[in-house]
Amino acid sequence: MSESISNLVALTLQHGRYESRRTIDADECRQLIREWEPQLAFIDLDIYPNFIDVFHREQAVVPTPILAFTRKRDTALKMSAFERGVDDIIEVPFTLDEIVARPYALMRRVHRIDVPLVPKIRLDGLEVDLIEQRVRVGGRELSLTPIQQTLLYLLAANAGEVLSREELLTSIWGGEFEIESNVVDRHIRELRVKLGDDWRTPQFIETMAGKGYRFKSQAAADRGGEAAK
Amino acid sequence: MTRTVATAEAGLNELREWRPHLLLVDIDQERAESLDFIGQRIANRRIPTIALTIRGDLKTKLAAFDHGADDIVTVPFAPEELLARVLALTRRTYGDAVPFAPAIKVAGLEIDLLEQRVKAGASEVRLTSLELSLLYLLASNPGQTLARDEILDALWGADYVAESNVVDRHIRNLRKKLRENGRRPRFIGTVPRKGYRFLGRSDRLHESAS
Lengths: 229, 210
Fold this sequence. Notes:
The complex is a heterodimer.
Chain A: H1 3-13, H2 26-36, E1 41-44, H3 51-57, E2 66-70, H4 75-83, E3 88-91, H5 96-111, E4 120-123, E5 126-129, E6 134-137, E7 140-143, H6 146-157, E8 162-164, H7 165-172, H8 183-195, E9 205-208, E10 212-215, H9 218-228
Parallel strand pairs in A: 1-2, 2-3
Antiparallel strand pairs in A: 4-5, 5-6, 6-7, 8-10, 9-10
Chain B: H1 8-17, E1 23-26, H2 31-44, E2 49-53, H3 58-66, E3 71-74, H4 79-94, E4 103-106, E5 109-112, E6 117-120, E7 123-126, H5 129-139, E8 145-147, H6 148-156, H7 166-177, E9 188-191, E10 195-198
Parallel strand pairs in B: 1-2, 2-3
Antiparallel strand pairs in B: 4-5, 5-6, 6-7, 8-10, 9-10
Helix pairs in contact in B: 1-2, 5-7
């Protein structure tokens, strides 16, 4: 899966206090299974379907439950994934609660562990409450729609990186739905209004002319500066 | 075979005399009662259960899992999404014992959900999953007028910002694929200023084709 989406998943998983690792290499994956012993696996079914077999060959005493992502609305594909040992499937685009609720159910079912939930996490100057769908900026508290929340997390999970309109569009709305061309800009505008962000001097979301949008973070800004030297 | 009940209480009564392979529970209606219902059937007999919710927020989903739901499907869903989850859950619970009919017959149409194909008379066409969802929505409410807003909510979700004519456009594409006669449609009728209506009888929707 694209790095921006896997960053989004990793950030969202902080609500379950999970630690996560990402790999796109089968050998590295085997090594991680042996040495790091993950309790859950997320596999992009569309790009790395053979990673399911990697997990099966390396199986430990308790098999690692597998959550698969797919962009395809294809029952046959999903059925064969379930037959090959996938435990649950999340369709891309997804809402953030899926990334928390489905692992929660799997951890209960397979490991009999009740994962403690962390409803609030900090994203730079923002405090986000995923359960109440609220975000606190400075002294103000406001509520977000699921799409605004996903958009905010996707940008924040990739702080310092420019995400193009297409990337935001396919990550949040998917490829199949027909939508107006300015839907990304409109949602960014609404999100900025809620965050009290001025597009001329943005504190959180910057417009990169002709490229897309970027979540501004102090740490990332420093890194960017070094890389440019 | 499916049976439908409107309340959790009626559901418990039904389960005294009938043992289904699977339960689909709408947890938005009578929230507390329906969650208790899921919890109770766990205590009594473990019938695999899928919770349906239009809200789909984290709190709702966690509560459903906490009460023992095996899976959750959020409304709007594509028919194949529901089917895939039903099949996965029945397989997990019963092994391969539950047969599965990918094709059903509705009002002279033969629909294969797995292949996303529809046979209307001699012609066979492939539908997109949106067209398939649209057809299922209409065909499962035969004779009833569905407003554009209703169709929009059911297929795209309430949170979705759509172009105003998106429903009409998809209806047009679907009609073209079903080879509908503009003036005398066989399947999808236009109800002026209101919406659309499925004309065929689809009382066999819940049965599998032989």
